[in-house]
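Issue: copy button drops trailing tokens. Both records pasted manually instead:
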Amino acid sequence: MTNPAALPADWRDILALTKPRVMYLVVFTAIAGMLAAPQFPPLALGFTAILCIALAAGACGALNQWHEVELDAKMRRTANRPLPAGRMDRQSALHFGVGLSFFSVILMGVAANWLAAVLLAASILFYVIIYTVWLKPRTPQNIVIGGAAGAFPPLIGWVAAAGQISTLPVLLFAIIFLWTPPHFWALSLFVRSDYAAAGIPMLPVVAGPQPTRGQIFLYSLPMAAAAIAPWPLGLAGPVYGVSAIILNLVFLVLAARVLANRATEPAQMEPEKHLFGFSVFYLFALFTVLVIDRFLPW
């Protein structure tokens, strides 16, 4: 049955269902992966491939909110989403998410290549089934394993352009995979009461702030190594290499400040908030410099 309270939904609610803030980063990293590839697809095909990745990200957001409507209703930062607020019914969200998923994968296969389409389908299934349904409600390692879902876009962008997988896109995948735990654990430290209220076993809820801070710093180390690696491996030039070193030094300093913090109240977690804010800038800056470096003479 359709919930009568869902009738006021409008285009803003449909857009919110796709988690546009998450989509921006997904689209950006996918474009960076495509531009870093050794050859570029025709403009129309490149645009279509990026559109497919954006639609797939939107589908993941819709299916995530469809599955987690009861959890979202328990958290202050998600309670006003279309489903828990009653502006849209769950069945509509499910149909929207499944329809976008199939459309994006089929269009990617037709417009770009079927390897990119298979990777796109794998990213959707991983995010919805492995992360959202299985890992998130069961283990504090949900972000660690689930980070693979968000790491797919630059790999898919590269494959859409080049038609094959090579070392650099795998490193781009690894960077985002290793960046995800410090990024989300920094956030979860100062909103852990929300996760606790919803019964989600995020690491700060299960293990406490100090073990989480230790894990943030530990994951930052291999992330920095993966981010710098393209330069010594000859996959990127010195502009990228020097920029990557600077960005990762700043990231490690901020992660060390988080490690040194002993606060338990959100109001005292400025180091965590600084790291979370910088982590978003870090990823945008790193991938931007990679693309700029790609077009320089060397």
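Record 2 (pasted manually too):
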Amino acid sequence: MEMNGIVLSPDPRLRQECEPIKEITPKIEELVERMKDQMFENSGCGLAAPQVGELIQLVIVDVDYSSREDYDPYVLINPVIVEQSETKRPSSEGCLSIPGINCEISRPDHVVVEAYDLDANLMRYEASGDLMCVCLQHEIDHLHGITMFERLDPQQRVHAMREYQDALARGAKPGDTE
């Protein structure tokens, strides 16, 4: 199921391992532009290709824009977490593909990510204890078929899924949080 161009849970595309990108083609560049539009229109701070129905390793992230004028997402192709702390920090997370709810997720509070940009340059992103740190991990999870539901213990997952169904019944749309 899709809404506002965003694939919604429990769509099976959100649970699949995505293929690495072998070549940056005009089709990939067009997809990036479409994803930028979708993320902005749905008030997101990160978006992974499977969330728009494409099963490839592509993520965009912009955690600090306030308007279209300062909106300039990072493009991460084939991102890999190369370092992460053992220290975890809980954070309230939302997801464009699971609208209407937030879930408390514990993740490493420091990560280093390597990925290629649209010019095929290898880039390195480092984040600690902030939204960027959470967003990088959340979006990379999507590339491996992991949604925030899978980061919860079984009891929390049942509760979150019930909340999600209630939110959808109330008309929640991508970008809506509790």
